Amino acid sequence: MIDDLVDHQHSARLPERTKVALEWADVILGGGHGATDELRARLRAAFSPAEIVEITYAIGTFIGYSKQIVTLGMEPEALAVTVVPTPGSGG
Q1: Which of 24, 34, 73, 91 has its CA 20 to 30 A from that of 50?
Q2: What confidence tier does 90 reach under pLDDT thresholds 50, 70, 90?
Q3: What's the pTM value of the predicted model, to 2 decimals?
């Protein structure tokens, strides 16, 4: 199933809840771009309102922690770093 994460939207093996949660994480990581009505409907069909809040909070928290670690120069040397520009930063 790990291999399916690369192209999770087209995976036949991943559960729909997992696919929707991963798509939601992609939207949040991208600054909210791509948050379509269709995705929101799928999210509401797969999760309760409380679960959506928890998933969104967890994603935001981990994004924040990762930015702090990079900013402080604390990322492990052996870890490949992927730079994702912050929306509106121009970079």
Answers
A1: 34
A2: low
A3: 0.73
CB atoms within 10 A of CB 89: 7
- Helix 37-46 with 49-71: angle, nearest 10 deg: 110
Find tokens 């924040």 and name the residue: 64
Q: What is the three-state SS of 16-73?
A: HHHHHHHHHHHHHHCCCCCCCHHHHHHHHHHCCHHHHHHHHHHHHHHHHHHHHHHHCC
Q: What is the distance of C-alpha 40 from the center of its chain?
A: 14
pLDDT value at 44 more than 90: yes
- From 57, 54, 23, select the one nearest 40 (Cα to Cα): 23
